[in-house]
Request: fold
Amino acid sequence: MKNFALPVSLALSALFLPTPAAAQQCAGTQDFTGDYMMVTSRLVYIPQAVTPPGTTAVVTLTTATLVTNAVKDKVPAAVAGRLFADGAGNLIEISGATTGPFGTYSVGSDCALTVNVLQSGKPAATFKGYLQDRGTSASLNESSGVEMEISRPFLAGGCGNASLSGPVVLDGFGLTMAPAEMPPASGGSPPPPAAGPLNTPFWLLERVFADGSGAFTTDVLVGTGTPFTGTYSINADCTGRATIKSGDGKTTQTMQLLLTQAPGLAGGVGRSSLRWVIQGAASAGAGTGK
Reply:
């Protein structure tokens, strides 16, 4: 009797080899069309010279400017916004009062996505990644280490405080920043300035309860979590803001909120997923809420 073990083994191996046909394929820019939520972040420390204090004037910057600043300044940063992809390679910022051009994009046949963020009409930062879930989300990176996550909004319109309700697990991390200060060496001259701000990482892992009317409280504490209370406001376009205060009253933090479609959710039917961003003079962080 002939031994068929080898041919059968080879046949089974061939059966489970990945084929090009099994990979996700895209037709072009039309596969990336409609409204999207965007979070861009650099939550690592890159040493640089200390920047002297500047003006305290309030300046409104476009989302595109904030993203390119995160790339060129090489400091911890987190940016949130809502974008519109026109299906022809143009991205428009449609969040808040800074509506206008954001950038351009291209989509390869293998669903590779390239986004060029514009400043003064010229590419200022390039992000590369892939479209996922039939164009409903994307993950991209910029060469200096800045990440960009894109996902569909929970609803095309008509969000409100009731869109965020029930128990929500907040999970994420960030960095708190302070001016670098070094004391003089004993009996000698002061050392040269430190090369950048001091950065202390922080982690957030809490389960909160959102009442659907604009208030939430800590539901379950994890580890050394501190009880806190807070308020939130969700806009019709599914963007929003939240202010949280620790139970001891010592810490108050403001978050930007984005309500997105939960993984695998089509048409905005069912429970929303949450993306949150903290961006201020003293801290930067980002994470999710599920």
